[in-house]
Amino acid sequence: TQLLEQSPQFLSIQEGENLTVYCNSSSVFSSLQWYRQEPGEGPVLLVTVVTGGEVKKLKRLTFQFGDARKDSSLHITAAQPGDTGLYLCAGALSSGGSNYKLTFGKGTLLTVNP
Amino acid sequence: NAGVTQTPKFQVLKTGQSMTLQCAQDMNHNSMYWYRQDPGMGLRLIYYSASEGTTDKGEVPNGYNVSRLNKREFSLRLESAAPSQTSVYFCASSRSRYGNQPQHFGDGTRLSIL
Fold it and tell me: Which pLDDT band holds residue B50 (cuts at 50, 70, 90)?
């Protein structure tokens, strides 16, 4: 059973369209991170959300952490070809004491066509 | 700014051979991680080192060993490679073991076991 479910798994849109991808769980996370991964490279952090209900904006990207800290969404406005990539969410769960591990979702592969 | 450096970038092994994947970070980070990424499976944690001198198992540790050589370096060893270990391996580091700390990834080692 995947701890973090991401949807959709694949998304292909035209330049200029808006989109939302989701990251859902039945577990409560202390924080949640979003990464973007381009082909042949490692994931790169986009944002960390910590507080339930928190909204963060990064240019055309808007990230929201659910009130119960079990889910998150990423909304992209007016998508551009440069937004193409694999979007990964990762939640931090306590692994004992003050140690934490990140659990990654399987990702949403976004293709923005010119 | 090198960040996290992984070597080699590509490797082909025969079943039963052994090899060590190297990882070094130059950000003075305390925590380091090894993940594998398989199609449709997302990133799965193999082993991690919360601080120098400690290592712990992650989600999929079987068939692997690790060594935290010093604060900068964290290696992953396959003692007897199996085709099921064909994957892309990513090393990551973070400032601390606390969950809201971002992880910085290398560009991966693409490993094929024949």
Answer: confident
CA–CA distance, B111 with B88 (Å, rounded to integer): 6
pLDDT at B78 exceeding the cut of 70: yes
Between chain A and chain B, the number of residue pairs with CB atoms below 8 A apart is: 65
How far is B105 from B35, CA to CA, in rounded Å?
10
Residues with Cβ within 8 Å of A15's Cβ and at least 6 positions away in sequence, in order, are A79, A80, A81, A112, A113, A114
Q: How far is CA B4 from CA A1, B55, B73, B107, in A?
A: 31, 18, 10, 8
Interface of A with B in 9-28 (CB under 8 A): none
Q: Are B76 and B20 in contact (CB under 8 A)?
A: yes
Residue B73 has what DSSP assignment? B
